[in-house]
Automatic annotation (TrEMBL):
<dbReference type="InterPro" id="IPR006862">
    <property type="entry name" value="Thio_Ohase/aa_AcTrfase"/>
</dbReference>
<dbReference type="InterPro" id="IPR014940">
    <property type="entry name" value="BAAT_C"/>
</dbReference>
<dbReference type="GO" id="GO:0006637">
    <property type="term" value="P:acyl-CoA metabolic process"/>
</dbReference>
<dbReference type="GO" id="GO:0006631">
    <property type="term" value="P:fatty acid metabolic process"/>
</dbReference>
<dbReference type="Pfam" id="PF08840">
    <property type="entry name" value="BAAT_C"/>
</dbReference>
<feature type="active site" description="Charge relay system">
    <location>
        <position position="159"/>
    </location>
</feature>
<dbReference type="InterPro" id="IPR029058">
    <property type="entry name" value="AB_hydrolase_fold"/>
</dbReference>
<feature type="active site" description="Charge relay system">
    <location>
        <position position="250"/>
    </location>
</feature>
<feature type="domain" description="Acyl-CoA thioester hydrolase/bile acid-CoA amino acid N-acetyltransferase">
    <location>
        <begin position="1"/>
        <end position="70"/>
    </location>
</feature>
<dbReference type="Pfam" id="PF04775">
    <property type="entry name" value="Bile_Hydr_Trans"/>
</dbReference>
<comment type="similarity">
    <text>Belongs to the C/M/P thioester hydrolase family.</text>
</comment>
<dbReference type="InterPro" id="IPR016662">
    <property type="entry name" value="Acyl-CoA_thioEstase_long-chain"/>
</dbReference>
<feature type="active site" description="Charge relay system">
    <location>
        <position position="285"/>
    </location>
</feature>
<dbReference type="InterPro" id="IPR042490">
    <property type="entry name" value="Thio_Ohase/BAAT_N"/>
</dbReference>
<protein>
    <recommendedName>
        <fullName>Acyl-coenzyme A thioesterase 4-like</fullName>
    </recommendedName>
</protein>
<dbReference type="GO" id="GO:0047617">
    <property type="term" value="F:fatty acyl-CoA hydrolase activity"/>
</dbReference>
<feature type="domain" description="BAAT/Acyl-CoA thioester hydrolase C-terminal">
    <location>
        <begin position="130"/>
        <end position="340"/>
    </location>
</feature>
Length: 345
């Protein structure tokens, strides 16, 4: 799979490009060609010795896609083939916004009813209106679906989605998952209010945003240090198994430091046995499904300053690719253990 995860934009391409699959029901076509000598550019002018087209799919045959538009909640539910019932996963992406479906499509292909939730858009929804109740409604919609095994749900968050996951799992009286997974998140920005209020609090540290010599934004320092934050999520309240996936070269979130502090807090609270931590040295913030190309820095709409920037995510290609493959397989195993095993018992 190295031919896939090692891909780079063609020289001369627009700065900050990132590959993301938006239509999961069409294949991604990868053209692989062999030439008579090493070439770094000018492929279109050469005749290949051999060529082939590889199809990459994000959905297995029979997976169903359902638009969710209920009680102001917007998302997409992916259901595995067959009558079910299946355990459910509430899938939360980060602060880039929009409805990102490819991870949920893959989860459904592995036997989980997964609901990708849109919580930063559309534009007519105000951030003041997105608070605990929004995620509680989404959780209840998933839990009450006839093809979902009731009360056998997980919450999976990436980046800002992990910040939300830790907050709602610790404090909500409605959201009681069997387990949760947080990829490169932090407990240092508690989500216990509306999105608007959370971002207003984050803006107090806006002076800690800085750029490198390539004018790429480094975001991780906007978080308070674990040893001296004004307030943080009381992770001692978490009562379900928690998997933390952290990247050693994350330049967007201090995920490793946060995980170390979470471990100490849970040890003190007596729930350390619920915690599993995966740390990947040399990996960056954007831990995607396996074999996705690594992007160290990409264009990003930074909600905090309402401006489009080039965000530095970090990571080196080979260790990052290993992290994506290993973390994905271990996430699937973790979800199966705590969702499917609980059904069997």
């Amino acid at each position: 799979m190295g031919l896939l995860w090692s891909m780079r934009p063609v020289p001369g391409s627009q700065q900050g490009l990132r590959i993301r699959k938006m239509d999961v029901f069409t294949a991604t076509l990868v053209h692989i060609s062999v030439y008579s000598e090493h070439l770094s550019e000018g492929f279109s002018q050469k005749t290949p010795l051999a060529t082939s087209v590889v199809e990459r799919w994000h959905v297995a045959p029979g997976v169903k896609r359902i638009n969710i538009r209920e009680e102001e909640v917007q998302g997409t539910l992916f259901l595995p083939p067959g009558p079910g019932p299946y355990p459910g996963v509430l899938d939360l992406w980060g602060a880039g916004g929009g409805l990102i479906e490819y991870r949920s499509a893959l989860l459904a292909s592995h036997g989980f009813a997964s609901m990708a939730l849109d919580y930063f858009g559309p534009k007519e929804r105000r951030w003041q209106d997105v608070d605990f109740s929004y995620f509680e409604k989404a959780y209840q919609i998933l839990n009450n679906h006839p093809v979902v095994q009731k009360d056998h749900l997980a919450v999976l968050g990436l980046s800002f989605g992990s910040i939300i996951t830790l907050g709602i799992v610790a404090y909500s009286k409605v959201i009681k998952p069997q387990c949760c997974v947080c990829v490169n998140g932090s407990h240092l920005i508690p989500f216990d209010k509306s999105l608007f209020e959370v971002f207003e609090d984050m803006k107090k540290n806006i002076d800690k945003l800085h750029v490198n010599k390539e004018n790429q934004v480094i975001h991780r320092d906007i978080f308070s240090t674990p040893s001296n934050p004004p307030v943080k999520v009381d992770v001692g309240r978490i009562k379900c198994p928690l998997l933390l996936v952290t990247a050693g070269d994350d330049q967007a979130v201090p995920a490793v430091e946060s995980a170390e502090d979470i471990e100490m807090m849970m040890e003190k609270a007596g729930n350390r046995h619920l915690l599993e931590v995966l740390t990947y040295p040399g990996a960056g913030h954007l831990i995607e499904p396996p074999y996705s190309p690594h992007f160290c820095a990409t264009n990003f709409n930074l909600q905090l300053i309402n401006q489009r920037v080039v965000m530095l995510w970090g990571g080196q290609t080979k260790p990052h690719a290993y992290a994506q493959e290993d973390a994905w397989n271990k996430t699937l195993a973790f979800l199966s253990k705590h969702l499917y095993n609980s059904i069997l018992h």
